[in-house]
Specification:
elongated; 3 helices; mainly alpha
Length: 90
């Protein structure tokens, strides 16, 4: 499947975003806007760090903007899904 790695990046960050959203929601009860921005920004930074550190390992490609975009979109979508369905999920 072409660009399968992008789907994997999206999926992992979607799941991580749901978990981080639930943790923040249960701990602080932030506004929805604050929750979405915090989760998306935080996991976007994790995605940038992940791409950067991959460039130091053999047989790994790093600094791929497409991977980072998939990470960020997964984080954003995961936080939106959590906000929409949190009553069913918790």
């Amino acid at each position: 499947i072409p660009h399968f790695d992008k789907i994997v990046h999206f999926g992992f960050f979607l799941g991580g975003s749901g978990l981080l959203s639930a943790s923040l929601f249960l701990a602080k009860k932030p506004s929805w806007r604050s929750l979405i921005l915090t989760v998306t920004f935080s996991l976007s930074l994790v995605g940038i760090w992940d791409e950067f550190h991959q460039s130091f390992f053999e047989n790994r490609t790093g600094n791929d903007p497409g991977d980072w975009l998939a990470d960020t979109l997964g984080a954003f979508c995961g936080s939106i899904i959590f906000c929409r369905y949190h009553k069913c999920l918790l």
